[in-house]
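Need a sequence for this fold. Nothing fancy.
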């Protein structure tokens, strides 16, 4: 099954961005600190060693000095330092000690309350306390990566929001009990009426050990278009900056993450009994948040709370996997004929002996979508059993007779539905474009179009194969027999170095190569016959991953 991991699949700003005159950056925050903080944190007498006035011959030099005193600097407070806080940690207001000090109890119901007395009192004192707007300016700056010179957000939106012309905030839910999970918060992110944005932001989880995630419970604004959780391949998070990243054409399809779960409505998703996602101790996830302020007169302060629940490693019997399957973007062209047009695409992997056990499946289009169905694919390429009906209402289970493109249903199978991926699935969607001339194509906003589905599943190996694996599960070669190349698919329970050896039918080694460090989960290596010195005949493939080994017989043919 040819899979395309779609990392974030809609967005761009629909209305014009705010003028530079309405935006703010670190210079604005520096001015606030000079008014409210310098009496205790001057260059001459910096309380706790923190100078918020700065030194230098001009204002630019002073701002630079204060920036250098704050960003990524470990605080003098022992308790805060022990928690890994920085005075300012890019992208993490909750781990920025300066922000926690200024976020008084009246800001967001005291969600950033300090541990007292170890972390001291809120600052500045009550007479000089920052207003909600001023505290928010600091938070927005941190969320957007705490840049030195760039502007980050529209201050007029924040003023309007805190003056009362605001879409109501969502109440914070209770966090999981210690040792059973953790809570992530994102927001507020401010949008004017009619604005639409989509962001990524990475989150280091700092887990106590490798754990098995069994449940994710999301609370977000109903103005949200979607929310998706991805997991980085080990070490790949370093390729991306801290803070909010606006989705655009250059970063829609990064290869460094793996899709986990998605929501178009707030909801609690619990995996089937005996299944779980594996989260190594150093797991870093990427949050993808697509927001559209449909309100006509109020500022939206978009926010979300995500409770992630886990159990000790080794508890689950099966690992859960996820994929997003996308219709070829270059083929999605919808002319303005005002007729319903059908688009069909099959996703399968010839020669594979893996069986996917389908648990959930969900579709996605934009506003031109009028129907979406998914079928099991028969071995002759025809449509078999229907496994997804887009007309179903997610809450009631009733067939509505129409497709709700903005909130399509998620269909669950318990018991899980097995199907061989050598046959795969067929997606079929319908679109109607009445008047967008001359046509609509694949794109990132709801004014463009997309066609895809995402699914969650466990994996088995089909019986009756020539599988001779040892220690390394789910090792397969497909196609087999093959002509020019075959794909080696295997599962790793942890990241490790992988090597491949090829032996001919006389037992002679004809090829050996170190394939590098491979990440935990399903992996695929393409073995080219010419590069591996294979002519027509039978061969034994030996794959070594750390201290685990697997082997398989393959056949090269014309």
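Here you go.
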């Amino acid at each position: 099954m040819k899979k395309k991991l779609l990392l974030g699949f809609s967005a761009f700003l629909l209305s014009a961005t705010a003028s530079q005159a309405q935006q703010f950056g670190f210079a604005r925050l520096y001015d606030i600190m000079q008014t409210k903080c310098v009496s205790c944190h001057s260059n001459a007498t910096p309380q706790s060693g923190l100078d918020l006035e700065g030194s230098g011959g001009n204002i630019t030099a002073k701002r630079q000095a204060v920036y250098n005193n704050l960003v990524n600097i470990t605080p003098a407070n022992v308790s805060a330092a022990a928690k890994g806080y920085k005075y300012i940690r890019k992208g993490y207001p909750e781990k920025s000690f300066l922000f926690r000090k200024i976020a008084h109890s009246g800001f967001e119901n005291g969600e950033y309350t300090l541990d007292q007395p170890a972390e001291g009192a809120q600052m500045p004192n009550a007479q000089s306390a920052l207003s909600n707007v001023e505290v928010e300016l600091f938070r927005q700056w941190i969320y957007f990566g705490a840049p030195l010179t760039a502007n980050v957000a529209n201050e007029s939106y924040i003023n309007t929001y805190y003056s009362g012309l605001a879409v109501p905030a969502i109440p914070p839910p209770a966090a999981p009990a210690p040792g059973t999970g953790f809570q992530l918060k994102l927001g507020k992110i401010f949008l004017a009426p009619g604005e639409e944005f989509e962001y990524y932001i990475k989150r280091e989880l700092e887990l106590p050990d490798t754990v098995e995630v069994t449940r994710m419970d999301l609370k977000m604004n109903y103005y949200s278009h979607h929310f998706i959780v991805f997991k980085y391949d080990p070490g790949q998070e370093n390729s991306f900056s801290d803070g909010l990243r606006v989705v655009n054409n250059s970063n829609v399809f990064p290869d460094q993450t793996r899709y986990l779960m998605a929501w178009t409505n707030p909801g609690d998703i619990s995996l089937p009994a005996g299944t779980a996602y594996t989260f190594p101790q150093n797991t870093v996830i990427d949050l993808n948040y697509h927001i559209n302020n449909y309100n006509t007169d109020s500022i939206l302060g978009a926010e979300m709370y995500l409770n992630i629940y886990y159990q000790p490693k080794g508890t689950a019997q099966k690992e859960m996997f996820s994929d997003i399957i996308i219709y070829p973007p270059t083929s999605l062209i919808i002319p303005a004929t005002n007729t319903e047009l059908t688009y069909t695409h099959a996703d399968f992997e010839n020669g594979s002996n893996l069986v996917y056990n389908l648990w959930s499946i969900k579709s996605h289009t934009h506003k031109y979508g009028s129907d979406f169905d998914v079928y099991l694919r028969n071995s002759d390429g025809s449509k078999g059993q229907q496994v997804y009906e887009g007309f179903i209402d997610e809450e009631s289970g009733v067939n509505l007779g129409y497709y709700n493109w903005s909130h399509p249903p998620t269909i669950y199978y318990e018991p899980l539905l097995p199907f061989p991926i050598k046959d795969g699935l067929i997606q079929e969607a319908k679109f109607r474009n009445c008047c967008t001339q001359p046509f609509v194509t694949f794109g990132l906003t709801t004014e463009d179009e997309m066609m895809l589905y995402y699914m969650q599943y466990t994996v088995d190996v089909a019986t009756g194969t020539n599988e001779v694996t040892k220690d390394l599960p789910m090792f397969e070669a497909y196609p087999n027999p093959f002509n020019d190349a075959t794909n080696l698919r295997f599962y790793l329970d942890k990241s490790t170095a992988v090597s491949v050896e090829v032996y001919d039918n006389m037992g002679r080694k004809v090829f050996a190569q170190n394939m590098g460090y491979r990440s935990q989960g399903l992996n695929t290596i393409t073995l080219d016959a010419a590069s591996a010195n294979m002519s027509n005949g039978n061969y034994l493939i030996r794959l070594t991953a750390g201290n685990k080994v697997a082997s398989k017989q393959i056949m090269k043919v014309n």
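For context: DSSP finds six helices and 30 strands in the chain.
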